[in-house]
Specification:
Order of helices and strands: HHHHEEHHHHHHHHHHH
CATH topology: Farnesyl Diphosphate Synthase
CATH architecture: Orthogonal Bundle
Number of strands: 2
Helix content: 55-70%
Strand content: under 5%
Length: about 280
Amino acid sequence: MELALAARLPQAHLAPTRLHEAMRYSVLGGGKRVRPALLFATARTLGLTEDEVEAAACAIELVHVYSLVHDDLPSMDDDDLRRGRPTCHKAYDEATALLVGDALQPLAFQLLARDPALRAASATRLRLINLLSEAIGTFGMTGGQAIDIVSQGMQLDIAQVEDMHARKTGAVIRASVLMAAECVPGLEARRYAGLERFATAIGLAFQIQDDLLDVIGDPSALGKATGADRERAKSTHPTVIGIAASQERVRLLHGQALEALVPFGNHAAPLRSLADWLLSRHY
């Protein structure tokens, strides 16, 4: 994955060099690569090779990194560390960090539109572009972030928290799974629906696990400080229903995700293994 991303990013020696350096710094700085991993695991479940969907996996990771770079800015979460290193605006400056996000987003859509490694028909490319654009728009990631900002200091109920998280985190995770499904011509509607149920459950559970780690996680393992949600008076599962109930909610969603994969039999082993890891991780 690292080589694939590096090959698709502008080379640092090309003008504007500072912007290209910052893009590579932000994208190639490590991370769990959860969204590409979900896309690859779904592809394997459906009989595709990773090479066939590599460009789509890169696109979804570029969008994710752009969101992190912007989230870290002083006007948003004002974070100093990301993945154990200075955030982009700390390593460079705020203006460059804004431009990094601005540049990564169109690059993602450019890959879906014309990357030669993505052997997909034009109609499929359009569906991939539509899926990703919906996932990051006002009814997806950007809308969820907006709700997160305006609700700081407010006490949301659990339904409101889950709606926010379904947009902010869940929408892109859902897109990660369904973009792989779109690359399979003629996929049965029931199988597509099963993958959608899996992705919806995993997306919410992943965010709850993140919120739990912000309370009980190890900063050295996480690569960033904990307690940020409490300091910003954010409504999360742990703050609204408590740690124990949040852990039980993760277990319930994990069960729902695995149930959705039953029709795929042993072919879904990659997705099952990834789901197990995502929801038991400590970083």
